[in-house]
Task: structure prediction
Amino acid sequence: MKKRIFSGIQPTGKVHIGNYLGAIKQWVTNQGDHDNIYCIVDLHAITVPQDPAELKASIRTMAGLLFAAGIDPEQSVLFVQSAIPAHSELAWILNCITPMGWMERMTQFKEKAGKDRERASVGLFDYPALMASDILLYDTHLVPVGEDQKQHLELTRDIAQRFNRQYGETFVVPEPIIPKIAARVMGLDDPTKKMSKSEPGKFHAVYMLDTPDVILKKVKRATTDSLRDIRFDENRPGVFNLLSIYQAFTGETEAEIEAHFAGKGYGDLKKELAEVIIEGLRPIQERYAKFIADPAQLDALLAQSADKVRPIAEATMKRVHQRMGLG
Ligand code: AQP
Result:
């Protein structure tokens, strides 16, 4: 029996190379080794206000990008979360067994809500319960995520274990898979902050659909430091971030990269990094253009995928109802 993988991505904003290196690239590598379920999590997206027409378009853009990045419909399932109502139902049930204190410890809510906590939606606060539901519905063994999601995954494990203790063995307790390289890609303009879709700065993130000119401009403007040598040193976050991105795209070792840049300057590093990103994204962008030109085909692929996994979700809900005495 292959182990089951589940992971999700929000169809909001523009997908950046942090999302690509932290999550998507892992999704498409060695697809044949696991039973893969990937989800475009539109119910997570509405935890902050969304324009309906834009959300609809973003779901297709995300689907097009994921297929273009290499998700193979023969080997992996890719569906839209709201197509399966069990996600919302299980989230409610998990809410009812999750102590407030656990949820209040989640740092992402604190970061996202910031000073505007009183105005943030209950959904944004409760986001990790929906994420737990996504994962637990499918008897997931492994969850490939960037490092920013590690805390949410630990909460998912805690919730699953608590449920299993209270109602008997029901959920598989999942493990995270966090990439060794580029698990946390930082902003180009501020390497102390995670590269993020919601960061407005023009030179903050490289997006997967950026043109070569734009990529070059952004990388050239990236923050470095006043030193000269090019080394993997975590105490120099700007250069470390650029080198980590280079490493994730090329697959070379730290020693090979340091040897390659020995005696060269930051100008060379930035020029070569831009080239590596441009070439890494080029085939994805070309395939994306074909997928997005046929929205009916994209919708059909997503719907077929939802049909494949719906029975798994329904079986889990049946088990949960029986254990809890519902209905
Ligand atoms: N900077 C990052 N480095 C590595 N991995 C990252 N991920 C996100 N940012 C980085 C990983 O991408 C996957 C999809 O996450 P998501 O749909 O939750 O993305 P997001 O949170 O909308 O992306 P952002 O940019 O982080 O958005 P905002 O600004 O809204 O917070 C996850 O596996 C995540 O770990």
